[in-house]
Specification:
The complex is a heterodimer of chains A (111) and B (121). In chain A, strands 1, 3, 4, 7, 8 and 9 form a 6-stranded mixed beta sheet that branches. Chain A has a 3-stranded antiparallel beta sheet with strand order 2-6-5, with no helix packed on it. In chain A, strand 3 and strand 4 form a beta hairpin. Chain A is 4% helix and 43% strand. Chain A is globular, with a radius of gyration of 13 Å. Chain A is mostly beta strands. Chain B is an all-beta fold and 121 residues long. In chain B, strands 2, 4, 5, 6, 9, 10 and 11 form a 7-stranded mixed beta sheet that branches. Chain B is globular and about 40 Å long. The chains are: A mainly beta (111), B mainly beta (121). At the A-B interface, strand 3, strand 7, helix 1 and strand 8 of A face strand 5, strand 9 and strand 10 of B.
Chain lengths: 111, 121
């Protein structure tokens, strides 16, 4: 099973809203409402932003939101800030054999 | 708040094995899975497998089945991952992460600090 597809890079200006996409298939994203998103700054461990498509841990800013349509999941960051510059990884459950599949990650640059 | 502290970096020869540890602080070690993931240089994340200490049975990604063993010691709140038959393709930062995988939810949080394993002759 191939990895989920994410754009390699995106950019935005401070204050803008930006949406990152993550495309899978009917065997993973399309089959389960079990998508999670992670933020990773250089040299650091990933940090959970969104789980189960659109749920947010208590400590995560409401500027981050998740959604899903068909086989594609999305992460929207509103009010872009300099500290949002990082890599973003999407992840989906893929059933009781593959279990977990990740995207290749998207590098977000804040101009 | 739960924290995960991993063992230190290591240099291994091709064909050898490596065993990493991940010590958890805080409560509820038994009730959530300890997962192992890795990230090769400049690459994305890859899930290797996980175990719920309370149940003791690990699940593995098909790619690593037969080459990886994941277990946990409840008495010390420590998870372990052993990977054998190492090649240069196994050079990566290895992470442990508490989490849930399955139809009950999917998340990894928190993460350990990561352990760099370099495989080279």
């Amino acid at each position: 099973q191939s990895a989920l597809t994410q754009p390699a890079s995106v950019s935005g200006s401070p204050g803008q809203s930006i949406t990152l996409s993550c495309t899978g298939s009917s065997s993973d994203i399309g089959a389960y409402n079990l998508v999670s998103w992670y933020q990773q700054h250089p040299g650091k461990a990933p940090k959970l932003l969104i789980y189960d498509v659109n749920k947010r841990p208590l400590e995560i800013s409401d500027r981050f939101s998740g959604s899903k349509s068909g086989n594609t999941a999305s992460l929207t960051i509103s009010g872009l800030q300099a500290e949002d510059e990082a890599d973003y990884h999407c992840c989906s459950y893929a059933g009781n054999y593959i279990y977990v599949i990740f995207g290749g990650g998207t590098k977000l640059t804040v101009l | 708040q739960e924290q995960l502290v991993q063992s230190g970096p290591d240099l291994k020869k091709p064909g050898s094995s490596v065993k990493l540890s991940c010590k958890a602080s805080g409560d509820s070690f038994n009730t959530y899975a300890i997962n192992w993931l890795r990230q090769a240089p400049g690459q994305g994340l890859e899930w290797m497998g996980g175990i719920i200490p309370l149940f003791g049975t690990a699940n593995y990604a098909p790619k690593f089945q037969g080459r990886v063993t994941i277990n946990a010691d409840e008495s010390t709140s420590t998870g372990y991952m052993e990977l054998g038959s190492l090649t240069s393709d196994d050079t990566a930062v290895y992470y442990c992460a508490r989490g849930r995988v399955g139809t009950t939810g999917l998340w990894f949080d928190p993460w350990g600090q990561g352990t760099l394993i370099t495989v080279s002759s």
